[in-house]
Specification:
about 200 residues, mainly alpha, 3-stranded mixed β-sheet
Length: about 200
């Protein structure tokens, strides 16, 4: 379960950044190629491009914190369950060793206890693997939920077809430089959270 200590936002940022580039228009006449330029003016074209700083976006998205909190609670519950059963097994094993060393049980009883302990040990290993798999699946679902929410909102955000492309920009991504004037992260964060509150009936 130590491997369950996951840096969720880093994994999620990488997943979003590497997933795709959103394209909102078809049959464009020109190329809006400015995200990698050194000019100080915002590049022009039939329609501009824009980008969001995906790390900032995710770390300011209310849905992310809610889902992460639920995930961490499930992780704690799983770890507590495994720790409790591991402790029980350890106590039973120590009890067996004590009785066997003191000659307090027959050879037949000792063999039966050994077999029972072996079965319990295997059950613990199976439980560890099952909980690890469930947590990994839970994390994948959480990531997909956030990605889905972001991409669906961006379609609404760009429903007037203002932008030709909206890129995700993060350290280590394929985009090495992006002009600050193309950064729409703040607007998207604000809109995402307002949209999320409406969905939850908080507004």
């Amino acid at each position: 379960m130590k491997k369950g200590q996951l840096i969720i936002n880093v994994i999620l940022a990488a997943a979003v950044a590497g997933l795709f580039v959103l394209q909102f228009t078809k049959g464009t006449k020109g190329s809006a190629s400015g995200a990698n330029t050194t000019n100080e003016t915002i590049p022009s074209g039939d329609k501009p491009i824009a980008y969001v700083q995906i790390d900032t976006l995710i770390n300011n998205f209310d849905l992310f914190f809610e889902l992460r909190e639920k995930f961490q609670e499930k992780q704690k519950t799983s770890e507590a369950e495994l720790a409790s059963k591991s402790k029980k097994f350890e106590n039973e094993y120590q009890d067996f060793q004590y009785k066997a060393n003191k000659g307090l049980i027959t050879r037949t009883t000792a063999q039966q206890m050994q077999q029972d302990l072996a079965v319990e040990q295997q059950n613990l290993i199976n439980l560890r693997d099952q909980l690890t798999m469930e947590l990994a699946e839970e994390e994948q679902v959480m990531n997909r939920q956030i990605i889905e929410d972001i991409t669906q909102y961006l379609k609404e955000f760009n429903q007037d077809n203002k932008y030709q492309y909206i890129f995700s920009y993060s350290f280590g991504s394929n985009i090495l430089y992006a002009h600050d004037g193309l950064d729409i992260t703040e607007d998207v964060v604000k809109g995402l959270n307002e949209n999320y509150k409406k969905k939850k009936g908080l507004e």
